[in-house]
Design brief:
This protein is of the alpha/beta class. It contains 21 helices and 17 strands. The chain has three domains: about 250 residues, 3-Layer(aba) Sandwich (Rossmann fold); about 60 residues, no CATH class; about 220 residues, Rossmann fold (3-Layer(aba) Sandwich). The strands form three sheets. It has a seven-stranded parallel sheet, sandwiched between helices. The two termini are about 30 Å apart. The chain binds fructose -6-phosphate.
């Protein structure tokens, strides 16, 4: 299945690419195709009475693959009796039973559910003494060599291009060894370790050399977050700054991608440079805006020569001269700007993003975490309220894992002191406080909070969300706390979306019958909370579609704290004045538990209000660079047709 897809697409459209790449609609389909290839290999080795030597990876990328292999074992009888596996890496030091160990990961996701012999499943040992590591690594490689090398190596790719834990700077002939982890790798892992300070600094990894010697290498990459490093590895020069680029020199390697991870490849991002394209409105807009930004020219200043010199002469021949194309694209972009996100009453709406009627709309804003509404669309939220719409906000999850432990105790203590002062007797409150205190005082790294602590943490975030909504002007009956069950695991790892999540979402939509729904449109975040929250909404609107009120319901997507829509995608841009920017900042400040050293900082040292301001200012600056009006800030939206 993989092979036939590769063969189909090795033509000239791949001339920028130095590694085979196969793009699937989504990571689920891709994982199934990879599982098919692995199953076929295992079976062909079985026929020859030979072992099948697999190199395995951990991380989020291969999870779907392992689930499919387990299914093939359980439902289709695929046996792993002849499989001998070698995992790429393990943190060091690491207890095999710790929730973050790769031993545990592999057992929970694969080994415990198939018939692989335990002695055949190798994962580097995180319990060695430093002195033992060198010999251990030599032995790990010798075992692989004695078996004739790895038949098929599964890889993920780090944001910095690492494969295994071969970080930037690793040599192509590097051996299996103890390595120091890059800051960026540690930050990515820190969400599993509840903070950077608990995240290991070192790991044992298979060297690049053994990976390169594998007979077949399949690298999996999902989501927009990987798009840049995928392009870098596949199209740019081979360099040890990006170890995955070494695979350009492997004769049987393939990158298996979902649409989002492939989005920066030239054939996808700038297809007109690769082959003859049909210049749809969408593609024209993307190409023209890209050209203007690349040349640092306002749209209306682009010339025929600019088009010709940048591979767009056929567009010019079809729809030119440049001035005509420029005007068309300029007007399109101009029409995305509106100070009336709920539609402007009594105005011609033929070129506006939203309908004029009904003048007073019912609006439902879904916020995955308690602060996404204000961070991502606070200016629009305030405008909708000020312009007299009936605005409701629904907080989809409690966000209870992202509160610091001492904050939880501080708030719980407040209740105890308050009760004491006023002689209020509440054995339940005392009990929760005591349990939380004892637990938190003895809490070990990465330990999952007990329900009492989660309850307190959730309550803190609830109070902050309510404070923001009141600040915007909403009353309690317009604020909805959904506490979707998929989220309530107490860990970063969430349950998959379930019937109940969808039903709760449907019930709320049906109850409010909104004309507008706003949702966090983080489409490309394969395992994140935002994506699950969005899936619940997509499922709910699809199921409700036959109902007549849905004919009038438009779904607008905003982006979460981490990224913004591409300028060529934006369908509604809501400008903000300097005063509105300040008001939004104050709205974000209501989330005190998320200020000053939040639990999940990510790679970005800025606080959420700073990120939001920078991002909204950047969007406004892009409009200005393209030759449109100058605003202090802008929030961007894309309409989703369901
Ligand atoms: C895991 C490993 C790493 C990951 C990479 C991508 O065994 O060696 O190289 O493959 O960090 O991680 P995810 O898949 O979580 O994005």
């Amino acid at each position: 299945m993989l092979k036939s897809k590769i063969d189909k697409a090795t033509g000239f459209e791949k001339r920028f690419e130095n590694i085979n790449t196969v793009v699937f609609e989504n990571s689920g389909e891709a994982s199934k195709a990879v599982a098919q290839e692995i199953a076929a290999l295992i079976q062909s080795k079985q026929k020859e009475n030979k072992p099948c030597i697999l190199g395995l990876a951990t991380g989020s990328s291969p999870k779907g693959l392992y689930a499919e292999l387990v299914r093939l074992h359980k439902e289709e009888g695929l046996s792993f009796k002849n499989v001998i596996s070698f995992n790429l890496d393990e943190y060091y030091p690491m207890e095999p039973n710790s929730i973050n160990s790769y031993v545990r990961f592999m057992k929970e996701l694969l080994f415990d559910h198939v018939d692989i012999l335990p002695e055949n499943a190798h994962v580097p040992n995180g319990l060695l003494t430093k002195e033992q590591i060198a010999d251990y690594c030599t032995d790990y490689e010798a075992k692989i060599e004695a078996l004739g090398g790895i038949d098929l190596q599964v890889l993920g790719i780090g944001g910095n291009g690492h494969i295994g834990f071969n970080e930037s700077g690793s040599l192509q002939n590097s051996k299996t060894r103890l390595v120091a982890l890059d800051h960026i790798t540690r930050v990515a892992a820190s969400k599993d370790f509840f903070g950077l300070s608990n995240t290991p600094r070192t790991a044992i990894t298979l060297g690049v050399k053994k990976i390169m010697e594998a007979k077949r290498v399949i690298l999996l990459a999902w989501g927009e977050g990987k798009a840049n490093v995928v392009k870098r590895s596949v199209e740019d020069e081979v360099t040890n700054r990006v170890p995955a680029s070494f695979l350009q020199e492997h004769n049987n390697a393939v990158f298996v991608l979902d649409k989002e991870a492939s989005s920066k490849l030239t054939r996808i991002n700038k297809p007109w440079l690769v082959e003859k394209v049909i210049w749809t409105d969408k593609l024209t807009r993307k190409a023209v805006l890209g050209l203007a930004l690349q040349l640092k020219k306002p749209i209306l200043m682009l010339t025929d020569a600019d088009y010709i010199e940048h591979g767009m002469s056929d567009l010019l021949a079809d729809s030119g001269p440049a001035y005509d194309i420029n005007i068309k694209i300029f007007n399109k972009l101009q029409n995305t700007i509106t100070g009336w996100p709920g539609g402007k009453p009594n105005a011609d709406d033929s070129n506006r993003p939203e309908r004029a009627e009904p003048a007073r709309k019912r609006v439902l804003i879904f916020s995955p975490h308690p602060d996404d509404d204000i961070i991502s669309m606070g200016g629009t939220f305030m405008r909708l309220q000020e312009q007299g719409h009936d605005v409701h906000v629904a907080y989809q999850t409690s966000g209870n894992i992202a509160v610091a432990d001492d904050e939880a105790l501080r708030f719980a203590r407040f209740v105890i002191d308050y009760n004491e002062k006023f002689g209020i007797k509440s054995p339940e409150a005392d009990d929760i406080y005591k349990k939380a205190q004892t637990f938190l005082e003895n809490k070990k790294n990465s330990e999952i909070d007990i329900p009492e602590v989660r309850y307190i943490k959730g309550l803190i975030r609830k109070g902050e969300a309510r404070a923001t909504s009141h600040f915007v002007g909403l009353t309690d009956d317009q604020i909805h706390f959904m506490e979707l069950p998929f989220y309530e695991t107490g860990t970063i790892e969430k349950k998959p979306i379930g019937k109940e999540d969808i039903q709760l979402t449907m019930d709320l939509i049906e109850n409010i019958k909104p004309h507008q729904i706003y949702a966090a449109g983080d489409l490309a975040d394969p395992h994140g909370t935002h994506k699950v929250c969005l899936d619940a909404i997509f499922e709910a609107v699809k199921a409700l579609k036959p109902k007549s009120f849905m004919d009038d319901c438009w779904l607008w997507l905003y982006r979460g704290a981490w990224q913004e829509w591409g300028i060529d995608e934006v369908e509604m841009a809501v400008p903000m004045s300097p005063d509105q920017v300040l008001a939004k900042r104050h709205g974000i400040f209501k989330h005190q538990s998320q200020k000053d050293g939040v639990v999940f900082q990510g790679t970005d040292a800025r606080e959420f209000w700073q990120r939001a301001e920078d991002r909204n200012a950047e969007t406004a600056a892009l409009y200005q660079e393209l030759g449109l009006a100058t605003y202090a800030a802008m929030e961007a939206f894309v309409r989703w047709h369901y």
